[in-house]
Amino acid sequence: MTYMTLAQTQARRRSLLWRLHFWSALIASPFLLVACLTGLLYVFTPQIERSLHGHLDTVASQAQPRPLDDAVLAASQIAPQGWSLHSVVPAFDPDDSVRVAFTPPMQDKAKGTGHGGHGGQGAIAGAAEAKPQFLRPNFGIPPRAVVVYVNPYTAEVLGQLKESERFATWARKLHSNLQQGDGWRWLIELAASWTLVMLVTGVFLWWPRPGQSGVPQAGVKGRLAWRQWHGFLGVALGLISAVILTTGLTWSQNAGGQIKWARDATGQTPPRTPASFKSTVNDGAKPLTWEQAAQAIRREAPQVSMMVMAPKGPDGVWRANQMDKGDPTQRFDLLLDAFSGQRLHYSGWSDQTVFGKATAIGIPFHRGEFGIWNQALLLVFGLGLLFSLLSGGVMFLNRRASGANFWPPVMQGAWQSVSVWAWVGGLLMLTAMPLLALTAVPVALSEGWMAWRRTRRAAG
Questions:
Q1: Contacts of 426 (CB under 8 A, 6+ apart)
Q2: Number of domains present in the structure of the chain
């Protein structure tokens, strides 16, 4: 291939990349703007929750807490009538309150996930008729739950609050589905899918050609300056963008299913907790109290905040897992015998697959759960993303003001210049992201219609 032919091929490919970049920005930008603004709000969840819910979450530290059973009993006395005790989060730090969660009994029964509380006097009867092969994963307190907050030192009830009314739950729902239910999650998935296209094409458009550095040059003004900073910041934040987008897609409706299929097909399924374990019931033996169970769990589990679930049925088991996601290496799932406190099952960080470890790190990072540095980095990312959206709009308006067409021009033969590897990469993206594939159909039809019109004009 001669230099001239190579230059022509690169020019054709560049015009096609620009066109795809424009399409992806046109589709994703409105949703991306909403996701960015709601995400920036969510970044400050710890500080906002401290202000809104501090009177429930924290207490004055004292010398010695009372047995956990006292807190569970106090919470049970004011819980909504007929509701079932779902789980207890014992105080971990000296100024933590005890959180006791209750869920509607009919929902628990329908889903087979109800957990009765025995207040230290035994397991609740009424287990599901048919247990699943594996226990459902625990992801914290259910949004439908009502949580009663209790002072661990005095057993005084501090108040109660629906988990759905906590700021963290509200902000997460706003960010993931605009407070419209799971049926609206496709909007964010659509934005994430096309944003990945925008990111990939943007990197190739920015990639420095011979004699260029890719770094914004001083003294440049106008549309060229906007373009330099638009490309540079987009690439500089590219790694964070990729982490945010891919972790967001893991819990999306359509792409998430594809990711799960690929995970399972490659043997990367996270360890699951068997439902076959049962407690050994001995005549005259008494089940562990909440305090005894908590102490037994502490001896077996990492020193982190944990959620404890009471046994279901007469031969049920105690279950505990990590509540604080700030240190994924401390994650665990533990089953204990309801009478002896003997460990029946344990899985921790070393038992996780590579995929499981990646998501255990990536998802909390996405949510800013690793502390101030994580929040600061996401704030910079969010502001950089807002600048990218703003600068893209400014460049479009400047281009239109100069008399250019609405659509960036595509050189003749651009599609024929696409390399085999680019086609393979594109097909992989379409396969991995069903919404991208679905919405790419009208894009392709629009491109075909515009090409047909250009051909007719040229012939006429």
A1: none
A2: 2
- For residues 80 and 138, membership in a common domain is answered with yes
Q: Does 438 lie in the same domain as 323?
A: no
- 223-232, 321-330, 369-378, range with greatest mean pLDDT: 369-378
| Together in a domain, 255 and 211 | yes
Average pLDDT over residues 70-79: 96
User: Across the chain, what does the average pLDDT equal?
Assistant: 87
Residue 372 shares a structural domain with residue 260: yes
Tell me, rounded to whole angstroms, the distance of Cα 18 from its chain centroid: 30
Q: Based on the domain organization, do 301 and 443 belong to the same domain?
A: no
Q: How large is the average pLDDT for residues 75-86?
A: 94
Are 102 and 234 contained in the same domain? no
Report pTM.
Answer: 0.83
Q: 8 vs 118, which has greater pLDDT?
A: 8
Q: CA-CA distance, 324 to 140, in Å (whole number)?
A: 9
Note whether 256 and 324 are same-domain residues.
no
CA of residue 181 relative to chain centroid, distance: 16
Helices 255-265 and 434-459 pack at an angle, to 10 degrees, of 120
Q: Say which residue, 190 or 75, is predicted with more confidence.
A: 75
Residue listed under structure tokens 């090409």: 451
CB neighbours of residue 72 within 10 Å: 27
CA-closest candidate to residue 119, choices 287, 306, 283:
287
Q: Print the domain residue range for 112.
A: 64-152+291-352
The burial class, CB within 10 Å (0-12 / 13-18 / 19+), for 199 is buried
Pairing relationship of beta strands 343-347 and 333-337 according to DSSP bridges: antiparallel
- pLDDT (average), residues 45-71: 95
The CA distance from 126 to 114, in Å, is: 9
